[in-house]
Amino acid sequence: MKSSITKISSILLALLVLLSTFSFTVKKHYCGEFLVGVSYFGGDQGCGDEAGEEDCDDPQIIKKKNCCKDEITQVEGQEELKNSAEKFDLEKQQFLVAFITSYNDLFLEEAEQVNLNEYYSPPNLNLDLQVLYEVYLI
Question: Which of 63, 72, 124, 128 has the fewest CB atoms within 10 Å of its CB?
Answer without folding.
Answer: 124
